[in-house]
Amino acid sequence: xxxxxxxxxxxxxxxxxxxxxxxxxxxxxxxxxxxxxxxxxxxxxxxxxxxxxxxxxxxxxxxxxxxxxxxxxxxxxxxxxxxxxxxxxxxxxxxxxxxxxxxxxxxxxxxxxxxxxxxxx
Length: 121
What we know:
The chain has four helices and no strands. It has helices at 2-21, 24-27, 45-77, 82-115. Helix 3 (45-77) packs antiparallel against helix 4 (82-115).
């Protein structure tokens, strides 16, 4: 069975590499019509990454805020119950961790984009 899977894997490698041999401009890195694509109105990979990260931040930032508000609601309704207080603390902690990861990703993308002097930050 493993020998059969290795043969399939080798065939896929050849199927992926053979078209590169018949398209010399992609092999030698020359610009062609296939390279000039626009996804979401961006002309480079970095601009595309910036747009995707900005979209993710716009969607998830309010969700993180809602989780912080929800954890506050859990604190208020715990009424001294240790189990509910623990749940509220965990919810608040994970909401803050998610918010930190979200803003950290945005910061890293902005630093990289500033380094490469990409517009549209």
